[in-house]
Design brief:
CATH topology: Pyruvoyl-Dependent Histidine Decarboxylase, Chain B
Distance between the termini: 19 Å
CATH architecture: 3-Layer(bba) Sandwich
Helix content: 25-40%
Structural class: alpha+beta
Strand order of the largest sheet: 2-5-9-1-4
Shape: flat
Radius of gyration: 17 Å
CATH superfamily: Pyruvoyl-Dependent Histidine Decarboxylase, subunit B
Number of domains: 1
């Protein structure tokens, strides 16, 4: 039996927050909140496949089965410090042509809110895609200025992110997860 290329046809963003006195259980609860706790997750790197369709978590539920090997790009962060702002984000840059691949980035941080995390993740993904597409830009300019260059190039059509941030609680581990999950 010969298998062809294993290229996902659908993908979705999801996020979750979990809290528990045990670190591993906090992660499990974050996966539950994200709706992917029943999957056997395999972490992959940063390429959004050509012709891949973005769907919602609700649309994806019919394609998710307990024990299923499920590929994802995930950012995960944890703290056990009371009041510490903890977060994770995945960002994606979509090419103008669906025939071309896009980029996904992961970002974790302490002390950044969701907007900061999402913007950084989108900027990182857009920068990676722009460099492979030959878009000329100044990496020292602000993200908003670079984003305009990306869009005006006609090679990058959009970017999106799924940030997740919260504050740690006393006596508890707090876990954030942000993921792009792939389906076939």
């Amino acid at each position: 039996m010969t298998l062809g290329p294993l290229v996902p046809t659908k993908a979705f963003f999801t996020t979750g927050i979990g809290r528990h006195k045990n670190k591993l259980q906090a992660f499990e609860l974050a996966l539950r909140a994200a709706g992917i706790e029943k999957q056997n997750l395999v972490y992959v790197s940063s390429i959004f496949p050509p012709n891949c369709e973005m769907i919602t978590l609700e649309q994806a539920r019919e394609h998710l089965f307990p024990g299923q090997i499920t590929f994802c790009v995930m950012a995960r962060n944890q703290t056990n410090e009371k009041g510490r702002l903890v977060g994770s984000a995945v960002g994606m840059a979509f090419p103008a042509s669906k025939e071309h691949y896009g980029y996904i980035s992961e970002h974790t941080a302490f002390g950044e809110d969701e907007k900061e995390m999402g913007d950084f993740a989108e900027d990182l993904a857009s920068t990676m895609l722009a460099t492979t597409l030959g878009v000329d830009f100044n990496p020292e300019t602000a993200y908003d200025e670079r984003r305009e260059v990306y869009l005006m190039s006609g090679k990058i059509i959009d970017s999106a992110s799924a940030p997740c941030a919260t504050h740690g609680q006393a006596g508890m581990w707090t876990t954030t997860v942000s993921a792009v999950v792939f389906l076939f």
